[in-house]
Design brief:
PH-domain like, alpha+beta, 49% helix, 2 domains, 7-stranded antiparallel sheet, 10 strands, globular
């Protein structure tokens, strides 16, 4: 992305308010990979805001005030004219890169339209979903995930933030999914399902799960199980199945999915027990991640008295790579107490 590449080393000061009732604090702002990075004076990241989802609260005024989403649960004030101009240019570049109605319609030739209408009842829904999932850019997935997360937070409480604990969460997700994974863990105060995988590479984790666990391998098991339970392996697929054919077609042709559909999806996910992966899929996932079953089974049984029957644990009695250090584990457990 030319605009983002040009400003990748640009930094400026700003005033960040992490919550509606919290004091503003001096921070350093820089560009990440399609994100705006907010760091403290020691260059420790405090937050990553998705640039495609960034909202300017006082259009045309200076200093500029930005929020990461429509909820405006956080805000960031920037007085540096160069940084403001850079953010606006990058936002415009990202907007131009999104699927546009005119461009997307060119993908559908007259012959495909005729064939689609003929086979609509049997072929269109599945094919339309596969096409949408295949062409939707990562920035739009991040935007959809941020909207769902904002709605989830209205029921679970705001995402807990602490730089040291977030670094530990990053280590855990790397241990589960491998180096270079696009997945990220966010912790909320109260999530009855334990862990939920949502679009944008996010896994929402219950703080109570961290308090109850004696071993980070148990939490790693919940993280892995939440991702494995997604039908088809794409976290956006359940959203589109629930949204229906018309909304999916609208997403493909205009790049937009109505906010009320995403909010309803979030509410439905919170109202139902967490989806369960098949025993076969769970075994394969645990084996691939080189994780033991037993800590996960014990914590699942403790929370719901429903012990997943995965059979003999092939890792039992064997040394497995550590999840994290004791100090990192304690930091992660206390992320919502800071």
């Amino acid at each position: 992305m030319t605009a983002l590449d040009r400003y990748v080393r640009l930094e400026s000061d700003g005033l960040w308010r992490p919550g509606p009732d919290e004091q503003r604090r001096q921070v350093t702002i820089s560009f990440g990979d399609a994100t705006l990075v907010i760091a403290d004076g020691a260059a420790r990241p405090l937050a990553h805001w998705s640039l495609p989802a960034l909202i300017r609260l006082n259009q045309g005024e200076r200093p500029a005030i930005y929020a990461p989403d429509d909820e405006a649960s956080e805000d960031l004030e920037i007085a540096d004219d160069i940084m403001i101009d850079a953010i606006e240019e990058v936002r415009k570049a990202l907007a131009r890169a999104r699927p546009q109605p005119g461009k997307l319609r060119h993908w559908i030739t007259a012959g495909i339209i005729v064939a689609t209408l003929t086979l609509a009842v049997f072929w269109l829904p599945g094919a339309l979903m596969r096409q949408t999932l295949a062409v939707l850019p990562p920035s739009k997935r991040v935007e959809i995930g941020a909207t769902i997360l904002a709605q989830i937070q209205t029921k679970t409480g705001q995402v807990c933030r602490d730089p040291t604990a977030q670094a530990a969460a990053g280590k855990l997700v790397t241990r589960v999914f491998g180096t270079g994974t696009p997945m990220n863990i966010v912790v909320v105060p109260d999530l009855p399902q334990g862990a939920l995988a949502i679009p944008g590479g996010l896994i929402v984790l219950d703080a109570g799960l961290l308090y109850a666990a004696d071993d980070p391998a148990a939490v790693a098991g919940f993280v892995l199980a939440s991702r494995t339970a997604i039908s088809g392996g794409d976290t956006l697929e359940p959203v589109l199945k629930e949204a229906g054919l018309a909304a999916t077609f609208g997403l493909l042709t205009t790049g937009d999915l109505p906010r009320e559909i995403l909010q309803r999806h979030a509410d439905d996910r919170l109202a139902q027990p967490a989806a369960q992966a098949s025993v076969t899929d769970l075994r394969q996932a645990f084996t691939a991640a080189n994780l033991p079953y037993r800590p996960y089974q014990m914590l699942a049984d403790q929370r719901s008295s429903d012990l997943p029957d995965l059979g003999r644990d092939p890792q039992e009695g064997r040394l497995t790579p550590p999840i994290m250090t004791d100090s990192e584990w304690i930091s992660l457990q206390n992320i919502c107490n800071r």
